[in-house]
Amino acid sequence: MEKQINLNLARKWRPQTFDTVIGQDIPIRMLKNSLYLNKFFPVYLFAGQRGCGKTTTARIFAAAVNCLNLLAFQQDPQQAMPCLTCSSCVAMANGNHPDFIEIDAASHTGVDNVRSIIESSSYMPLSGQKKVYLIDEAHMLSKAAFNAFLKLLEEPPKTVMFLLATTETQKIPITVLSRCFQLIFPAIAHEELKTLLLTMCEKEQIEIEPAAVDLLLQETDGSARDAINLLERVRFSGEVISEALVLTVLGKISNRELITLMTHLVNQAPQELISYFNEINSQVRAPAALWDGLINLCRTLLWVKYGVNTLPQAYHSVETEVKVLAAICSRNRLHAILTFLWEQEAIFNRTNKKQLFLETVLLQLCEQTNIADLSELLGSLPSNRGNSGSGTTALAKSKTVVSLPPAAESLTAPIETVAPTSVLEAVRYVQPQVVTETSGTDMRWHAFVALSSELQDQLLVSIFKQASLVSHTEGAPTVLISLSSDSPFFKSNIESATALWLPMLKQCFKGATGLTYQAPSASSVKTPFPRQPIASAAAPFLNREAPATEYNAPQLYQKRESGDFLVIKDAQEWPTASLLLTTFSGKIKKVANS
Ligand SMILES: [Zn+2]
């Protein structure tokens, strides 16, 4: 049997009656009431995004106004309207109704066109009860045209009706708007459009996978007309329309591929990024689509970050992948990526070498310093540390924190020159050129110390402040440092908080993935129970005078004050705290569990 192929699906499936218009219940009800009550306004405004049914509904309304069976509808609103059978409706369907004039304002913007409308509107309708003018894309009319039109709207002839359709209501002068009966057409819901397309495909004997329908709709942004036109294009490219086929026809990559690309980007892996970009490049025949895809993906990732439960329709099938990606990408990073893309978009649109530009932008984004992540990381520190299971130190578990003695409160003072007060200020310390211009390798460690000083974990901050850089070759994975004490407690404390400081280390030391430790040099070696504070260049805050008794080991556990501070009498009961006191001239403060 030969397949019957309709070459213009959009025209064939264009609704002819109110009941076949989908997803526009409220404006349809308003128009039907207008017809039922026989109350007509001189000007109606049909506003809404493209392809949501404005112009179609306006045509149906125009047909209904002049339908010879309107009276029957007014007596029995269950009757179909327009009837589609009377001579007026037939003339409308054939596009030769003498009282229906459709004008595309996009191509008739001038005042002369409006003047001819004004002139012709003074004639009585030829066959119907009203002369109906449908002005499509009404916002395109010139200012002069609107002014001329306004005079007509102020005193419209009773037998004339204007239907204005627009996608951009804000461009219509307020003086005109205030004279309109406004109908707002919302975007058609995805499910409604999907049902329509599936029904259409069944009737037209088009084999299509539901996922392909989702993709068609996603591509056409809720426009029924665009979706049907795209279906028309795709249907000739294969027996069964699959998601992959739609992507190929569109010259686009899938969201799954986009996520992989983005993962390389946020992981700051330029090599992988370039090779993957080249791998998918043969499919990327529409660089603009990839650009939009990146923006949409970032937006979706932000939704996840802000706890939105329902992701945009396009990402339903890759929800898990999106959430995994969101977990390794901070909000600030996403905002930074989006801002950069918006900033570059004008250039992207202008350039003829879009692929090349895209690659450059991706690399720039990939290299973009992760500094934005830091403030977020810092902001979430207390909860992070408190909630993390294995990585939490005994100190954090008992909710006991070190309250630094007065001397230590100003512990940043000696290295103030390199300690930025804010994360933003820290940026200048991690800019490679700044680092090289100043004093070489030490500057990188200072930058790291400066960054890490923002950490809430004061113990960790102190350990880093007292440590010094031994060596690091650019690109090498490990940074060799010397701690002020060889105490295993220091190392375990550093290691248990790797997740917190590693991103900062990576920013300051190119290629670094961890720290290694060198035994402290003889001059700065501290015994586990030092008799007195050690004056060391690497331990600035310990220069402060503290009573020698504070360090007297045997007395250590008895001489603590009570009150706000914890009385440490038994080293067995408070192993971590007592170990702490061997190194820091502080007091242990108990913080109530909240
Ligand atoms: Zn009729």
Model description:
By secondary structure, the chain is of the alpha/beta class. Helix content is 49%, strand content 9%. The protein starts with 8 loop residues before the first helix and ends with a strand. The strands form 4 sheets. A 5-stranded parallel sheet has the order 2-3-4-1-5, covered by helices on one side. α10 (210-220) crosses α11 (224-234) and α19 runs antiparallel to α28. It has 4 domains: 24-185, Rossmann fold (3-Layer(aba) Sandwich), CATH 3.40.50; 190-250, Helicase, Ruva Protein, domain 3; 255-368, Zinc Finger, Delta Prime, domain 3 (Up-down Bundle), CATH 1.20.272.10; 379-580, no CATH class. Zinc ion is lined by residues 67-69, 82-83, 86, 88-89.
What's the quaternary structure here?
single chain
Provide the low-confidence segments as ranges: 380-440, 523-562
Major beta sheet summary = 5 strands, parallel
Nearest-angstrom radius of gyration? Answer: 36 Å
The pLDDT mean sits at 76
Alpha plus pi helix count: 30
Shape: elongated
Number of domains: 4
Secondary-structure-derived class: alpha/beta
Percent helix, as a range, is 40-55%
The total beta strand count reads 12
Strand content is 5-15%
**First and last CA, distance:** 77 Å
- Hetero groups: zinc ion
Strand order of the largest sheet: 2-3-4-1-5
Descriptors:
30 helices; five-stranded parallel β-sheet; Helicase, Ruva Protein, domain 3; 594 residues; Zinc Finger, Delta Prime, domain 3; three-stranded mixed β-sheet; 9% strand; single chain; binds zinc ion; alpha/beta; Rossmann fold; 4 domains
